[in-house]
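Task 17 of the worksheet. Students: predict the tertiary structure of the chain below and write it out as structure tokens. Keep your answer in the requested format; marks are given for formatting as well as content.
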Amino acid sequence: MTFSRILTAPPSNKPPEITYLFIDGGYLRRSYKDCTSQWFGNDVGDGRDIDFAAIKSHFKAKKVFYYDCLDEIQNKNEKDEDFKARVSQQKNDFNQIRSLEGYHVKLGTLVGNPKRQKEVDVLLTVDMMNHTIRNNMTKAVLIAGDRDF
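Model answer:
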């Protein structure tokens, strides 16, 4: 008679790792544009071809929170039809990101000249703190370039 025994690890009291990813979209696009411009030349990479699914996968994130601003300030010398097309394209881009599994998009506002994001850092920080307090995640990953973070 032959006996075999399967060894298993003892049950762990440690909760499974749940990663949430928080992205400052303005920073991500700027970095993407700077890097692709540096590598491939000028006017390459406007950020519209960023592979958001790959980013989520790379960090093994369960959820991704993407913060950005809709640029509804018409540029000086920008024709009305060009302005409307640009805003429409931005809305489409944000809806495309929203349609990805596990992605949530939150928008702040743009102000001033030069244009600056407002509310994005606050939205991001409050969400990160709320998910931490509620124990929704065990690990947070932040993609941002602000030194105040």
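Marker's comment: The radius of gyration is 21 Å. Residues 22-143 form one domain.
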